[in-house]
């Protein structure tokens, strides 16, 4: 960004082994915190769950992978993750295709959400994506309020444990040796210890001290956090789009490649026309391909009886250049074609996962809405 907080370039950020290592420790910390607060405060622990995906969409994804010779096991989340890792290895020479598959894999997934343990059946506590029975957010209290609630609950559990153990030692019932004494938060969790009257009294007192919310209050907190998290996600998406729009508006055009993710017979009725030329789209059902061709006659056709024409100008869906004029002016502000993408030409046959050249640019602004559009990058002597 510049000093005026405007974007001037973009880079692809990569992840190193150290990033993955830190992430694993964070996941372990979150899981451990979830286990401790659920043991000590089973009716008022703030947890995070991720329900199972939409099975119909997941089976569609499995069929899509099988169609392209990729084996996918969707019997549970752990096997699904292992399958995707195996596919990553198979597609190590085509990382773009793997990214496409990951975008498909995300479609059946439902949103994760916060919840109060006392308001949800134990069988619904699990986190599908992480394949764990208990999970919460603990590691980022500086930017997430749920983490603060979890910290308070964990602090109460630790203090209650200390008070309880001191009382037991005074009575001579517990030794002072290491972690064996940690009956609330340690590895050797003792369910009977935590259910005794002295333990419940210590936990209740600590909950008051650290302001641990009750079941009803915590359920309201969880609902509010879910609402705010979804709103934050929408703001982030809108902000990312805005910054990309500003960058593209300044640079004019970004030439790149794209993969075809959706294709079907409904496209066979779309005709894109101009005054001089027409671009027709013909769906070939036997091969599941789309044939784009250019003719010198102008025609329009409605896709439905008594419906308005679906025709569009060719400029709306394609950036057409004359082969003799492909060289850009050296003074042009357009983003250089760093990937050396050559324009396509007619007739163009497109099938699912085809790689096609596109031109991305910003539209709108002033008094209109902002948007980013991608057009087919095509070459034609008729232009």
Automatic annotation (TrEMBL):
UniProt keyword Transferase present: no
Ranges where the RNB domain occurs: 1-160
PROSITE patterns: RIBONUCLEASE_II (PS01175)
Molecular function as annotated in GO: 3'-5'-RNA exonuclease activity; RNA binding
Cellular compartments per GO CC: P-body
UniProt cross-references to Pfam families, sorted A to Z: RNB
Domain of life according to the entry: Eukaryota
Record bears the keyword Nuclease: yes
One record GO biological process: mRNA catabolic process
Keywords (A to Z) from UniProt: Exonuclease, Hydrolase, Nuclease
Name this polypeptide is given: Dis3-like exonuclease 2
Source organism per UniProt: Phtheirospermum japonicum
Source taxonomy: Eukaryota, Viridiplantae, Streptophyta, Embryophyta, Tracheophyta
């Amino acid at each position: 960004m510049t000093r005026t907080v405007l974007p001037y370039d973009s880079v692809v950020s990569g992840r190193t082994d150290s990033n993955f290592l830190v992430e694993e420790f964070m996941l372990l910390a979150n899981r451990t915190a979830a286990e401790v607060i659920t043991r000590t405060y089973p009716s008022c622990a703030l947890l995070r769950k991720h329900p199972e995906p939409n099975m119909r969409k997941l089976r569609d994804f499995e069929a899509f992978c099988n169609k392209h010779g990729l084996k996918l096991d969707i019997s549970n989340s752990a096997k699904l993750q292992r399958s995707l890792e195996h596919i990553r290895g198979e597609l190590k020479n085509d990382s773009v295709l793997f990214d496409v598959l990951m975008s498909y894999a995300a479609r059946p997934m439902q949103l994760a959400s916060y919840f109060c343990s006392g308001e949800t059946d134990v069988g619904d506590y699990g986190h599908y994506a992480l394949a764990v029975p208990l999970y919460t957010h603990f590691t980022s209290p500086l930017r997430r309020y749920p983490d603060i609630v979890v910290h308070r609950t964990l602090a109460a559990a630790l203090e209650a444990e200390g008070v309880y153990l001191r009382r037991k030692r005074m009575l001579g019932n517990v030794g002072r040796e290491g972690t064996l004494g940690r009956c609330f938060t340690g590895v050797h969790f003792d369910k009977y210890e935590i259910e005794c009257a002295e333990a419940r009294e210590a936990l209740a007192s600590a909950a008051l001290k650290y302001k641990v919310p009750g079941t009803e209050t915590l359920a309201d907190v969880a609902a509010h956090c879910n609402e705010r998290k979804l709103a934050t996600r929408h703001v982030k998406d809108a902000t990312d789009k805005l910054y990309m729009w500003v960058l593209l508006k300044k640079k004019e055009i970004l030439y790149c490649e794209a993969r075809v993710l959706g294709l079907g017979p409904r496209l066979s009725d779309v005709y894109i026309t101009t005054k001089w030329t027409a671009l027709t789209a013909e769906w070939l059902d036997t091969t599941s391909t789309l044939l784009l061709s250019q003719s010198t006659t102008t025609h329009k056709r409605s896709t439905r009886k008594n419906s308005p024409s679906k025709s569009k100008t060719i400029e709306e869906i394609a950036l057409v250049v004359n082969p003799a004029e492909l060289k850009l002016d050296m003074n042009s502000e357009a983003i250089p074609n760093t990937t050396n993408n050559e324009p396509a030409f007619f007739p163009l046959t497109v099938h699912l996962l085809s790689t096609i050249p596109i031109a991305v640019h910003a539209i709108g602004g002033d008094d209109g809405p902002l948007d980013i559009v991608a057009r087919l990058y095509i070459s034609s002597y008729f232009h």
